[in-house]
Write a structure and sequence with these properties.
Two copies of one chain form a homodimer.
Chain A: H1 9-16, H2 20-28, H3 47-61, H4 66-77, H5 82-115, H6 126-132
The structure holds a DNA duplex.
DNA sequence: GATACAATCTGTAGCGGCTACAGATACAAG
DNA sequence: CTTGTATCTGTAGCCGCTACAGATTGTATC
């Protein structure tokens, strides 16, 4: 037996660890459906909203953009094929790996350069040197 | 003998591979000093600007924020100690490493999950599963 | 009921780091 | 002098929130 209890935005926020402002933002941009309201206009959420919001949050944590999440949610809504979901995940994985590669290049350059730094005088600071030259 | 030739924003853009709009933006936010102008109001740059802009671009490529770059430029302007520059670089390196760690967590989770995916039916897609659960 | 105080409401503006226009001038070549 | 390009200013948009202000509800206590 499901607990069909409804709750306000504050409780939803606490139970999902998503900011109240962010929840309203997700509603505005169409990620979270507009919930029913009290007579006074306060939003009333149910566990379906909570689940969806957890899904969104988790996807954000894994680096999906809101657009990608919209896509995923679209898949989940319909009768999706697991392969479609996998495809989206692998595409995103590719993105992540590119970003990692980028960052590791930066890391190496910076670490190498900083290692050559011996706190000497101004004229020959290797870091400034590196920053002053276009990359080869 | 230095070539004291002056040139327009278009040439500066080409020689530094920085967008024209971005150059003007850097001027607006105080990263690049306002150059002299022609009578008609067109900007006239010299090699000092070019060098500074290359420095900015290179720093951006290494992931420094505009604020950090302002800082670095401030150091370079004055009679900086190499140690100060190194400190800034190492602080930034720390940031980068945190980001890499974040991304690698995402990568692992996604790769692991996607690997368990066999293109089966909807009900038991492991990716959806992962996304539906708060991280533990 | 009245009252106090918390929760929520709407709407708007800001962040960083650009990018993309529109509409008006300026400059260089023929 | 005309044509065509380069540049000018100013404004608005992108993403994913976050932070207000000022008004209104909801709830607990007396």
């Amino acid at each position: 037996m499901a607990q069909n209890r409804e709750f306000g935005i504050g409780e939803l926020s606490q139970r999902t660890a998503v900011n109240i402002e962010t929840i309203r933002y997700y509603e505005r941009v169409g990620l979270l459906p507009s919930p029913p309201r009290t007579q006074g206009g306060h939003r009333l959420y149910s566990s379906a909203h909570r689940k969806r919001l957890v899904f969104i949050r988790r996807s954000r944590e894994l680096g999906f953009t809101l657009d990608e999440i919209r896509n995923l949610l679209g898949l989940v809504e319909g009768s999706y094929a697991c392969g479609d979901v996998q495809e989206a995940a692998l595409a995103h994985l590719k993105h992540i790996r590119l970003k990692i590669a980028d960052l590791r290049r930066m890391e190496r350059t910076l670490a190498d350069t900083a290692a050559r730094c011996e706190g000497g005088t101004a004229a020959d600071c290797p870091i400034i040197d590196v920053l002053s030259r276009a990359p080869g």
